[in-house]
Specification:
Blueprint: H1 5-23, H2 30-46, H3 90-107, H4 113-135, E1 140-143, H5 146-149, E2 165-167, H6 175-191, H7 197-216, H8 221-224, H9 226-229, H10 240-254, H11 257-266, H12 285-299, H13 305-318, E3 328-329, E4 335-336, H14 343-361, E5 367-369, E6 372-374, H15 376-391, H16 415-418, H17 435-438, H18 469-472, H19 476-490
Antiparallel strand pairs: 1-2, 3-4, 5-6
Helix pairs in contact: 2-4, 2-19, 3-4, 3-6, 3-19, 4-6, 6-7, 6-10, 7-10, 10-11, 10-12, 12-13, 12-14, 14-15, 14-19
Length: 503
């Protein structure tokens, strides 16, 4: 959809104003944010499973998992290893994909041409796999035996642990993982609707089928597959939030009225009335409300008015000084939720702050916090503080993005990064032999450029220790929302933010 020239001019002026505001007195330049953005995408190449393309830029990686799915006579090669291990978990991979796609949808207009192409490639590497998982055999969702995998420390190229295929079915439902997969495919269909319309149509059609399965056979995959998904990725929030999230994304991608009716009929029982204050691979409620609030803010869809109020409540909970303020921040100013992989909550909240600021800016709106209001500018400033903290503007003067800045962690909890590459050490390193590298005090021999780690504790302390996985392990779902946030701040006055839209 193309907007009238007068609207575009107005948006350019608005974007330039926001750009000058959020980058003034910055510790980082637009070039720094652009560099961090490109590196945040490069990280996903380090997490690839399957046959690597000739364009692979992290060349210390090689092909892996080439027989995935064969034990069940299906092709499940590809996708991403979720973190520092060699398992392809469906729920975090699908969430990663949804957030990558959402970042492209909202802020792809701020990306340079090649960067946008790299972002789309990151999305497609996952959606190609998710399409296989959803269609190769009914509702297959992830590969790898996690308990066996965690008893080894080996490169993905050397994997010899079982690559069992785990799936949900009518008899063993998994509405959470299925509905998140539907959300990922639907969001990605928007990303590709102009550049590859036939692929986009396939993504959306598959999303609808997978969502129908998720809704028809309700249940949590933690109950069906608890012995292998717990404690790694149990769905603690249940599956209702994913159903509402999936329906919301399919509605946005398709504008099909039946999904609007579904949201209206089911929202109250699926978390629409809850004010939840974190957004993660497990709990989608805050993200769903921001997504749906767009319909009221920008299009005055009355059915979505309650989501504006709940989004305000979430946003205001993050703003110090607000009557609704509930968040905890470290002495150095980092948003803090819990000790394990805390930066995942920082990157998701930063992305939501910027996305909501964009929606509010479209019609001069504000977030209502009790008797006070919070402007889009305030949300941008708060998100910027979190982004800058991750990139090195923090008490430790440590960048928590590997390969960015002058000082960053050297001992990350990641098998492929910590072991010699197959190019440097062609001989197989067996399951137990790799532990010498886990316990070594030497820096990782392979730099996993762009990886964002779990991050510091509630007092801004960080242990650069491979064994401290809560702080030193990267994950795709930490990086994914950061892509959109970095795209926002990488925009320059010559690149007004998103005058054109993809949906």
């Amino acid at each position: 959809m193309a907007y009238p020239a007068t609207f575009c001019l107005t948006m350019q002026i608005l974007c330039l104003t926001l750009c000058s505001l959020c980058l003034s007195s910055s510790a980082f330049t637009t070039h720094d944010y652009s560099d961090a953005l490109e590196k945040s995408l490069l990280f996903f190449e380090g997490q690839r499973s399957g046959k690597l393309p000739s364009s692979q830029r992290l060349t210390w990686r090689a092909d892996s998992g080439l027989s995935d799915g064969s034990s069940s006579h299906v092709n499940l090669v590809g996708g991403y290893y979720d973190a520092g291990d060699n398992v392809k978990f469906g729920l975090p991979m699908a969430f990663t994909t949804t957030l990558l796609a959402w970042g492209v949808i909202e802020f792809g207009g701020s990306m340079q041409t090649q960067t946008l192409q790299n972002a789309k490639s990151a999305v497609r590497w996952s959606t190609d796999y998710l399409l296989k998982a959803a269609t190769a055999t009914p509702n297959t969702f992830y590969v790898g035996e996690p308990n066996a995998d965690h008893q080894c420390w080996e490169r993905p190229e050397d994997m010899d642990t079982p690559r069992n295929v785990y799936k949900v079915s009518p008899q063993n439902p998994g509405s959470d993982v299925a509905a998140e997969t539907a959300a990922a495919l639907a969001a990605a269909s928007i990303v590709f609707q102009h550049s590859d319309p036939s692929y986009a149509a396939k993504l959306l059609q598959t999303a609808m089928k997978v969502f129908d399965f998720a809704d028809r056979y309700r249940g949590s995959y933690s109950d069906s597959l608890g012995s292998v998904v717990c404690p790694f990725y149990c769905s603690y929030s249940g599956y209702q939030d994913e159903l509402l999230w999936g329906a919301s994304w399919i509605h946005r991608a398709s504008q099909n009225a039946s999904y609007l009716a579904y949201i209206q009929s089911n929202g109250h029982t699926m978390g629409a009335d809850d004010d939840d204050y974190s957004f993660s691979w497990d709990d989608k409620r805050a993200g769903t409300k921001v997504l749906l609030a767009k319909g009221f803010i920008e299009k005055s869809i009355e059915e979505f008015q309650p989501y504006k109020q709940h989004s305000d409540n979430y946003i205001c909970s993050l703003v110090p000084g607000s009557p609704n303020f509930q968040a905890q921040y470290t002495p150095g100013g980092l948003f803090y939720v819990r000790s394990g992989s805390n930066l995942q909550y920082v990157t998701t909240s930063s992305f939501l702050l910027l996305t909501y600021a964009k929606y509010l800016s479209s019609n001069g709106g504000v977030a209502t916090c009790g008797s006070s209001t919070v402007t889009a500018d305030k949300l941008i400033a708060l998100a910027k503080k979190q982004v800058d903290y991750i990139l090195g503007d923090n008490p430790a003067k440590m960048s928590y993005m590997v390969g960015f800045g002058n000082r960053y962690p050297q001992h990350i909890h990641h098998r492929g990064s910590s072991l010699p590459s197959v190019h440097a050490h062609p001989d197989r390193i067996n399951c137990g032999d790799g532990f010498q590298y886990l316990y070594s005090g030497s820096p990782n021999p392979n730099v996993l450029v762009g990886a964002i780690l779990g991050g510091p504790d509630n007092n801004d302390n960080f242990s650069d220790d491979r064994n401290n996985y809560q702080q030193s392990e990267p994950a795709t779902y930490i990086n994914a929302p950061f892509v959109g946030a970095l795209a926002f701040f990488s925009a320059t006055p010559q690149q007004p933010r998103n005058c054109k839209t993809v949906d």
